[in-house]
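Hi support team,

I'm filing this because I wasn't sure whether my run with S-adenosylmethionine finished correctly. The job status page said complete, but I'd like someone to confirm that the output block is well-formed before I use it downstream. Pasting the exact inputs I used:
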Amino acid sequence: MWKEDVLVDQKGYRLIDGIYSRGEVIGNSNVDKMLLAPGTDFHSRVRVPGSQSYFDCAVVYHYLERLFKGFSAKTVLDVGCGDGRVTTWLLENTAANIVAVDCSLDSLRRLQRRYLAQSEGYERRVLLLQCNVVDIPLRENSCDFVWAFESLYYLLEDYQRGINELSRILTDQGLLANCDRDYEYGLIYELLNKGPEALLAADKTKLMPEPGEEGDLQARLLTRREIRQALKANELYVMAESPVPAISVMVSYLNSRGLFVDEIQRYSAEMVSLFLKLLPETAFCKSTIFWSSKSQRGAPF
Ligand SMILES: C[S@@+](CC[C@H](N)C(=O)[O-])C[C@H]1O[C@@H](n2cnc3c(N)ncnc32)[C@H](O)[C@@H]1O
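And here is everything the job wrote out:
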């Protein structure tokens, strides 16, 4: 019943094997490439000590644990959920219903198989939706926690449109958490991996090429000021900014160069504890989680 309440059903969406879809997604060049590829298996990566996902996910779960100690949500929207490393966390650790949105059908199918295998009850709590995040078939004011981790920057010049769409869906008292690739981090990543010319090119284009399973994706690099402006333009008040440390990228860089590989494996868990302890002092961010709301109120934790 809750699914019918949040869905706007007049846009040609229908249920195909448990996933609401129009059978196509119209989007930019990133979306076109993501549609053709299987999408990253984040769940497997999270378990590889030394991988970026291993560290980033520990940080994300840490923030979510803190948030849900003093916050409850009836309906959560997981934007660009991928194969659901956060959707599954939300299922296991909160009582919320969850709308999981992604353009990649393969990722949504993996997510579906994973939670269905875990518990029959989970199917009732998840609405899987294949669509473009700039045009989500959900009602206004229908979700009280909107989570967008490392997905909006793929919208490139439509970033503001994405924030606009999430703001439309967010309830008046709800909480939006969006997290996108940091500008300075992108420049440093290009310098480390490709040299000074690539760094200067990234500064000119504001884009970071991301070679991967999907082909060459482009990530829009955003300064924290740009993100604050995009939120402000939608009358969203930023209550707190939480860093996702760039140190995870440095560790996976060493790994990719075959340096300290055994040590990284051995000390990954200890390093995670250290990074979590340092979070309040973190200055060099891979990305920043912006916690915002339509109503002015205190920090979420
Ligand atoms: C880097 S992954 C992050 C996945 C997930 N948020 C997580 O943290 O595990 C980005 C995800 O955003 C999705 N995505 C990118 N652009 C999108 C768009 N315009 N509409 C819907 N999904 C999109 C991709 O398919 C991919 O699953």
